[in-house]
Amino acid sequence: MTTTSTIFDFSRLESGELYLFLPTASSTAGVWGMFERLDRRRGVLLSVCSGDLTHFDLWTPLPSGYTCCRLASRSELRDFMFRLNQRFTDDGFSATEIPHP
Predict the structure, then answer these.
(1) 101, 61 in Cβ contact below 8 A?
(2) Global confidence as pTM
(3) Cα–Cα distance between 1 and 76 in angstroms, integer?
(4) Distance CA 22, CA 8 (A)
(5) Three-state SS for 33?
(6) Are 48 and 61 in contact (CB under 8 A)?
């Protein structure tokens, strides 16, 4: 799978991978999310997500209205993880210490 491939079937997503979720395939703005799993009632569950790489939500369902996604590139993953770690280090703990529910 290349980073430019648009994925419409969320059942093909891999746990632990970072994706950019988009409202439409032609959208340029979306939500970055680390895929956790599919849930029958809540849909796509994300271990962490952010729309601006400044504010991060943990253990949340993908907001409604997103119809497709693409896998993040290595540089996008690096930037996401750097900003995530920076955000939680500033709060007094490392992102590696985030408890799993």
Answers:
(1) no
(2) 0.81
(3) 16
(4) 10
(5) strand
(6) no
Tokens of 44: 């796509």
What letter does residue 100 receive in the DSSP assignment? Answer: P
Structure tokens belonging to residue 96: 């590696």
Residue type, 38: L
**β-strands 68-71, 31-39 pairing:** unpaired
Among the residue ranges 25-29, 41-45, 47-51, 88-92, the one predicted with the least confidence is 88-92
Asked if 81 and 53 count as a contact pair (C-beta separation under 8 A), the reply is: no
Half-sphere exposure of 93 (CA within 13 A, CB side): 5
Distance, CA of 17 to CA of 28 (rounded, Å): 20
Q: 98: which DSSP letter?
A: P
Alpha carbon dihedral 19, 20, 23, 29, in 10-degree steps, equals 170
Domains and CATH numbers, the chain: 10-91 (2.30.30)
